[in-house]
Each structure stands twice: as structure tokens, then as C-alpha cells.
Amino acid sequence: MTHRREFLKATTAGLFGISLLPVRNKLRLKVQRQVKPLVISTWDFGIQANAAAWAILQNGGRALDAVEAGVRVPEADPNIQTIGLGGLPDRDGHVTLDACIMDEHGNAGAVACLEHIVHAISVARKVMEKTPHVMLVGEGALQFALSQGFPKQNLLTPSSEKAWKEWLKTAHYHPVINIENQLSPAHHDSTYSSHHPGDSFNHDTIGMLAIDQQGNLSGACTTSGLAFKMHGRVGDSPIIGAGLFVDNEVGAATATGVGEANMRICGTHTVVELMRQGHHPEEACRLALERLVKKQPDYARSIQLAFLAVDKNGTIGAYALQKGFTYAVYTPDIPNRLMESKSIY
Ligand code: GLY
User: Which residue from 46, 81, 96, 276 puts its CA 20 to 30 A from 200's CA?
Assistant: First the structure.
């Protein structure tokens, strides 16, 4: 009877994962149900972004369409000063956006240092679908976006301009943990200060990962980057393997926090490779962070960097250097809930 029940579970489940585990010299059938559809994204604003993605996923839409639609929500929100419209500018007053997208076939597109276009993620998708390249930057990215019909507009909102002019009074630069892309108070000197869930602005880059009803994965990542950065600075978010990596056979990962730290460890590629070796997504995120901690402990203690990952079965994991990293989860069993990740410090 037991065998029959297990067999029925496996066959009626269709796409459920099945593995044979050796237990005391006998083989035991382990049936792992694939959670789908599913969407997860970084920070509190992931809740609104997930809702837009879910509308596509629940109607049988493609994960790629879902992640693009999802991250367009914070991109268009002028009150979010870390992404798209209203993003804080660089130190010369330019709002420059970084974004990338990756699909279930391993196709990828990215833009970096893109000005005047709200939906950097959609330009990244056009790079993926309409050009032989993976990444366009700066003026070339803008020209391409305009050729594709994206409207040109001023992304510097009055409140972001005011924050920039306030910052210029001292031009003191020190990213604040959990709000790296946010205003760095001019007089802020505490290396270890942090903000926590419930603070009105504990957010930064949005990274989103989804599994559709066909069981396919895609991801998107978009940001205005570190506030008051040097003009021309590009962070981790548009870099495939740093801000985002998707392997449809294994899983996907995305990142938020100080891009320079992430680029040094090819963070999301590392997380996916660790999942390929059999690590749980949460453990894979922690092990990737530990590479940075081991090499540069003082630096790692002074910044935030966080990973969010999902494996092919829909098992979710996250880990951060510092407390305060939140992420939003939407599955058939979890109707869009905010979670806080574990942290090393
Ligand atoms: N993770 C955002 C950035 O460093 O630009």
C-alpha cells in the first residue's frame, strides 16, 4: 500500500521532483513537490512588485513577463529613491540606472548607467531580445532605448534633487547599512548603524525571481545604484552573475546591498553553483557571503550585502551580512508575505 500511495503521489503530481535516497541499504522514494507558481523579491516594496508579477503568473503567464512587470512597479514610483523615477542621483546630479534580466533559456540582457528612461528593466529585455549583445551602457543604451520607442524624461524628482543639494553641502560619502542607495546623512559617522523592518526606508535594489506554472525560472534586477556615486559608476545589479543569475536546471539568485562587495565574489553565480552542489538555497546564500567575510572581514562588517535565492523545486532561501534585510514571498500557500532573512552579524 505504501508503495502504491507513493507512486500515486508521484504520477498524479506530474512535474513533482522524485529522488531515490539510500536508507539503511534500502532505497526510499522521496517525492518533492515543486512549488509553482512562485515569486520572491527583495525589500518591503517587493510586496507591491510581487502582486503585479502574480497577476501574470496565476494566469499561466511566463516567468519572464512576470518579473519584468513586477519590477516596473517600483521603477515607476517617484517616492522610491533607490530605483527608476525619483532615484537619487550621482554626485554630479545625474540619475543613472542599472538593470538586468535573465530567462529560462540562459538569455540575458542588461543596461548600465542609463539616463532619462524610467523602465531600465524593459530596455534590458529589449537588449536581450533585439540585439546580439548582453549589455549596453550610457549614451549607447539611451540611443538604443529611444530607437525602441521608450520615452525620454527627467528622472530627477524635486525631493531627490533637494536631497542631492543637501548632500553637496558636505559631499560626505558613507553608505548606510540597509539603505545604501538612500540618503547618506552628511554628519553620519557610525560604521555599524543599521535600519530595520518597519523603518520607512529600509530598501535599496529590487531583485525578483519567479517560477511559472510551466516550472520555468526567470529573474530581474533594477536600481539607481548607490546614492551620490561617482559619475559612470556601475554596481552589481546589471552584472549577470553578480546582481542576478538564473539556471533553469538548478535555480536562481539575486542580490542587494553594496555592489562593489558583490562583484568581488560573483555573488549570485556563486549561490547558484552552491545550490547545484546540493546546498539548500539559504545555506548557499550564507556560504557565498562567507567568502567575502573570510577575505575582508572588516569591510564585510561595515556594509550590507544580501542574497535571495530559489531552487528549481521552489525552495526559498536568503541570507544577509547585517540584520534588517527583508524579502517578499508569494506562492500558492503564502499569499505575499514579508520575511526577514538571517544574517551573519
Ligand atoms: N546593489 C546596488 C548597487 O550597488 O548599485
Answer: 96
